[in-house]
Amino acid sequence: MNKQTEILNYINKKLNSEGHAPSVREIATAVNLKSTSSVQYHLDNLVKKGHLSKKANLSRSISNNKKITNFKTIPVIGEISAGTPLLAEENKVGEIPILEEKYSKDLFALKVNGDSMIEAGIHDGDIVVIDKNIEPKNGDIGAFMINDTEATIKYLDSISGKKYLIPANKNYKNYEINENTQPVGKVVSLFRDI
Amino acid sequence: MNKQTEILNYINKKLNSEGHAPSVREIATAVNLKSTSSVQYHLDNLVKKGHLSKKANLSRSISNNKKITNFKTIPVIGEISAGTPLLAEENKVGEIPILEEKYSKDLFALKVNGDSMIEAGIHDGDIVVIDKNIEPKNGDIGAFMINDTEATIKYLDSISGKKYLIPANKNYKNYEINENTQPVGKVVSLFRDI
DNA sequence: CATAATTTAGAACATATGTTCGAAAAAAAA
DNA sequence: TTTTTTTTCGAACATATGTTCTAAATTATG
Known about the structure:
Chain A has 194 residues and is an alpha+beta fold. The first copy, chain A, has 2 domains: 3-64, Arc Repressor Mutant, subunit A; 71-191, Umud Fragment, subunit A. Chain A has helices spanning 3-18, 24-30, 36-48, and strands spanning 52-53, 63-64, 71-77, 92-99, 107-111, 127-131, 141-146, 150-159, 162-166, 175-176, 181-193. In chain A, the strands form 2 sheets. In chain A, strands 4-3-5-6-11-7-8-9-10 form a 9-stranded mixed β-sheet, with no helix packed on it. The first copy, chain A, is rod-shaped. Strand 11 of chain A pairs antiparallel with strand 11 (181-193) of chain B, so a sheet runs across the interface. Chain A binds a DNA duplex (30 and 30 nucleotides) through helix 3.
């Protein structure tokens, strides 16, 4: 490996592991160069080639030029235990990445339990992303809390004036919405490990 | 906002925008403190509380303690044009995030075209992640190239000794594997926007 | 109000660090 | 080989930067 890429790799490694850039002298030691000016020589080239950025006369100001795609994570909620608020830490079973541009504070994810929505292509164990900021409308798939103890994913629709939670599975019955049914948000996307 | 969180926010902002930590004096200026020792005072507290890490006597060595969930992206491939290599840039229609721990070089994603796998819960427009390093076995859902011009997602299975690509849709027929059929990889996960 | 705890200030110090320059060494080209 | 280009070295320099200490100012507490 040539010295230049060796230096670049070392810098990237350190940026990642230490959270800050190495000094010129640290680089020199790491890549077996006796003189700091040798390192400068390569740093100049790496900057010219656009691989790195650095600021003049500034300690440890080297940074990586590569475009960073930014993500945020949203919590994945598993079983809801009675009484525990939906997003309580104890319900959390994981995190999933969301592109920053799609991210909003009102997103969270729910691990699907059961096959009541299988005809909508939502399987047991799938993770659905829910936007609390969007109230599910007729025809939408939404997340609903029933009696504050159970979260369920169902179609929402009206049948002869009454509102129902409608499963996508012939083996399950419609559930008429009552005062114990609270809409949580709209299902906006889905993840599955196969 | 109190001084401590003001400092913490400034540091995080700078780490993000500049790629390296600010100096103590830069912090002082930014949060309107006249003395560097005032900043030190708060830095010490932030370190004690576990919000930051820093190394003694080291310039710009402040780093953020929060666990960084690392992601990588894999390319999403759209329509395959005849002759063009599968992963060619011109076939790319986007990127999706993958947790670093799940990431491998051999992952890519394919936008599903059509509803031939709808009974397996894979819909038109879904994005499936394919691991090129795993050769699909009987019973697996795999990605296959047909005649180097078309990528398709199907079940793989044997029927009376012959290997078939089997759709999950009664309206489609099984396709017997021949010399023009190349396995690309196994489908390992799925994304859907609803 | 008096007292204690917290926060800020100022100055001085030690040094880690980037930079520069000329020359030597090594590698590549002619 | 000779010439040119690339790479490395060593030393010296200027300064950006973290640190410490004491005292003052501010805020909280009784």
